[in-house]
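User: Fold both of these, please.

Assistant: Here is the first one.
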Amino acid sequence: MNVSLMSVVNKWKKEEGLHICYLFNRKKYIESVVSYIISGIRNEEMVVLVENDRNILHIKNELDKQISQAQLVHFHYINNYDFYWSTGDFHTQTILHYFSQIINPLLETRKPIRTWAHVEWGDEKEVNDKIEDYEKIAHTLIKEKEILSVCAYDISKAPSHWQPILANCHSEMIIEDD
């Protein structure tokens, strides 16, 4: 059964956290991110995007066509390299501390929060042993803070042996077809 990302997102109960693993192909990626962001902004949610600089230019161009500058007050962007590699390695506690620093002020607005994080890495060996711990702790934090969160992995780069690990660490797993 092919379940679409937005059908899962639309079922989100705001009093519960929802942690989604999204394995994507490059073809529809920007469209999916933009739909997710616009849906959140139109629902008056705070939206945090963790993304690389190449994609953010395309995403911002699409957002500028579809939402007003006033609505962008609900949108926050963080470079994913800075987010995941601020200490020079994929260090779980540092990443989650950084995440909390970003999210905690937004929680004070009392508006629902949704995040989208494009997970990228340079050396698979370094991340290989850390990805499960990171996603398990992130899952707990997301549930605790009642956040809607998408962790996006490029299916062509994520090793196949990660799929069962990622499935066990998320509330939902969506694999985008071509």
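And the second sequence with its predicted structure:
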Amino acid sequence: MLSAAKHQPGRRAARSSGLRAGIRIFEAPRLILRCAQDRLLFTMSTITALFDDYAAYHQTPGNKAFHRLGIPMIMLSLIGMLVHVKLGPVDAAIVLIVMAELYYLTIEWRLAILMLLVSAAFYFLGAYLGLWVNVALFVLGWIFQFIGHKVYEHKNPAFFRNFVHLLVGPLWILNGFIPVVKHRA
């Protein structure tokens, strides 16, 4: 039975393609960028469409205020926690920042540059803070998110419907502080 499995052409091709896939892992950022540019991964194609959709879930002043506090806390603390997760020569925070930036560059390059500066500052600040401070900020940031939605907005968070909104939220907040993209608020 083992010898029959060896001679099946499909199995051999699968094994050799798996080997090639392992070699091509370094091409992943380029492939992700190409897919994002082709709009294969994301259904909304423009930053204004993303912001308008996100804003539909964030109409009340109370919800917006809690998000202006909570989202930066979540970003800072997530990056701060991921600094301690080593992935060979880099840490998970760098991987997250690079992956997010690749997506941001495809939807709005000016905000992507600003977000890179914010992410770099959060990287060093988060690394400086203790792990338990980052954990506490992370939990508090999510509590703020859900207070905003439950108490003020009375709607589920936008990422319940579209997971991409986890990346859109920080850009939306940044654009609120430093307006780059005009959209319906």
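The longest strand covers residues 86-87.
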